[in-house]
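Onboarding guide, step 5: your first structure request.
Type a short instruction followed by the sequence, for example:

Predict the 3D structure of this protein.
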Amino acid sequence: MTHRSVLPLVMLCGLILAACSSTPDAPPDKERDRGPEVAPDTSQLEDVVPRNEPRSRYGNPESYEVFGQTYHVMAEMPRTFEEEGIASWYGKKFHGRRTSSGEPYDMYKLTAAHRELPIPAYVHVTNLDNGRELVVRVNDRGPFARNRIIDLSYAAAQRLDMVDAGVAPVRIELLHADDDVPAVADSGDGVNEAGGNVVQASAAERLPGEVEEATGNRGSNGDPRYFLQAGAFSERGNAERLKERLHQARFDEIRIDNAGDGGLYRVQLGPVSSVEAVDQLSRELEDHGITASRVVIEP
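The system replies with structure tokens like these:
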């Protein structure tokens, strides 16, 4: 192991030990300054265009552990990948710190963090609240907060008009260099040649609950609605048994959805009106032994 890979590992171990002593779902720190004093105009940023890049030598371990949970990085870049869920963003506190790829985090570039996609990667992000969309370059690991699927840079969050809310329902779609995307100028992001195979400390330090300042309200006036999926089964009888178990635990508004997903019977709770309510409901499910719930978003 080289000297430059030892230091991040030592830093990470100390950070994880410190993080584990705190409450994972502590409320956001309202006093923390996550944005700039004067918000810059990010509308003039050049759009990110997917291009062929070598897999980063740093930030792509086979697996890694944060807050007691193990994550697995995809062995190969998939041809197709699409996901819907809740996005958060991170800003000033991490500006200039090293990302998992080894590159410094620049809150004024259109970048993002994802837990499993190989880095670097390019994804198309659509804000399902307002229809705004953009392409970002994934060069970091995270988010590690409950019920979040992607952590956007400040600039990306501003372009998607989600800075004030702190979170937003999004759809993300993986892009490749040969995909049909607008031919605009290159984003200018380089690939750092640092070695190593651990998650960078700046990513792990984004404690659950710290990456968003506000939760925002959804589900009214035609906005997307949230459901929390407690399980999916190939046989309806198993879905019915889980539904009954949830009823006995005094959960209500439970449905069995059989639309799509290869005919799976999906047990879902909701609709839930806000991200805050989604987080609370998932905590209650965990108290009853259901630890793998996932957010489903519907128009």
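Each response can be followed by summary notes, for example: The radius of gyration is 19 Å.
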